[in-house]
Design brief:
Layout: E1 3-8, E2 26-27, E3 30-31, H1 32-41, E4 46-53, H2 58-67, E5 73-78, H3 83-91, E6 98-101, H4 111-124, E7 126-132, E8 137-141, E9 144-149, E10 155-164, H5 165-178, H6 186-191, E11 197-200, H7 212-227
Parallel strand pairs: 1-4, 1-6, 4-5, 7-11
Antiparallel strand pairs: 2-3, 6-10, 7-10, 8-9
The structure holds cytidine-5'-triphosphate and the ligand C[C@](O)(CO)[C@H](O)COP(=O)(O)O.
Pfam family, one: IspD
Family: Belongs to the IspD/TarI cytidylyltransferase family. IspD subfamily.
Keywords: Isoprene biosynthesis, Nucleotidyltransferase, Transferase
């Protein structure tokens, strides 16, 4: 199942505290964004990469695409103030019948999950990568436990999130009209009443958000070197 991927990469990485877009930080001698892009560059099912960027990063990113021979980027669009706007700007360039959205800050996604997501999106309309919650989750109010939430129904939602193009475009247009803001793409699709299938992914598929995530990133790469993928 062929697909295009939208990669939002226009954030500022404030929680990482590096004073610049965290996606340029090197992990294992390669910028985070290069790790992410190479996964899709090397996936034969990926027809094109639509990259949302901060205009200030354009020349550095163009240099990286050249240096790492990344040829599938078909659009470099300006991102917006929030992730949702960045994704929407890039989605407007999409043409394939299946489109996925994947955070530039999740460099450890692997091809089997991508394939499963593309297939489920084709069949069901929408699919998200996720892993079951391992900890006990409680709802807290004013410093006291209000409720322990049944863990069996709780999943941590990741990207990629894959959709039929018609559904994700409608979801983004309706969200814009209604002023609806979600923290992921699927929540916009849920908002228009469409179903979203969950695909069990990998705990390695972390989003590099804060400084300690860089240590986890090195550990994941060391594990892969030692034991394979
Ligand atoms: N206006 C924005 C904000 C975020 N992103 C992208 O969305 C992904 C997930 O966002 P997050 O991890 O929150 O990144 P930042 O927004 O950069 O981080 P922070 O919130 O700490 O500033 C990242 O690949 C980021 O580059 C984007 O394209 N446009
Ligand atoms: C889309 C996402 O990766 C789902 O986990 C996440 O919500 C993106 O950014 P956030 O700023 O950390 O919520």
């Amino acid at each position: 199942m062929k697909y295009e991927v939208v990669i939002p990469a226009a954030g500022q990485g404030k929680r990482m505290g590096a004073g610049r877009n965290k996606l340029f930080i090197e992990v294992d001698n390669k910028p985070i964004i290069v790790h992410t892009l190479l996964v899709f560059e090397q996936d034969p099912l990926c027809q094109g990469i639509l990259l949302a960027i901060n205009p200030d990063d354009r020349s550095e990113l163009t240099g990286l695409l050249k240096a790492y021979q990344i040829k599938k980027v078909t659009a470099l669009v300006d991102g917006g103030r929030e992730r949702q706007q960045s994704v929407h700007n890039a989605l407007k360039q999409a043409q394939a019948s299946i489109v996925m959205v994947h955070d530039g800050a999740r460099p450890f996604i692997q091809q089997p999950t991508i394939l499963e997501l593309a297939q489920q999106a084709h069949k069901m309309g929408g699919a998200v990568a996720a892993v079951p919650v391992k900890d006990t989750i409680k709802k807290i109010r004013d410093g006291f436990v209000e409720e322990t939430i049944e863990r069996a129904s709780l999943w941590l939602i990741q990207t990629p999130q894959a959709f039929r193009l018609s559904i994700i475009m409608k979801a983004y247009e309706e969200a814009q009209k209604a002023g609806f803001e979600g923290t992921d793409d699927a929540s916009l699709v849920e908002h228009i009443g469409e179903k979203v299938q969950v695909v069990e992914a990998d705990y390695d598929n972390i989003k590099l958000t804060t400084k300690e995530d860089l240590i986890f990133a090195e550990a994941i790469l060391a594990k892969r070197r030692k034991y394979g993928q």
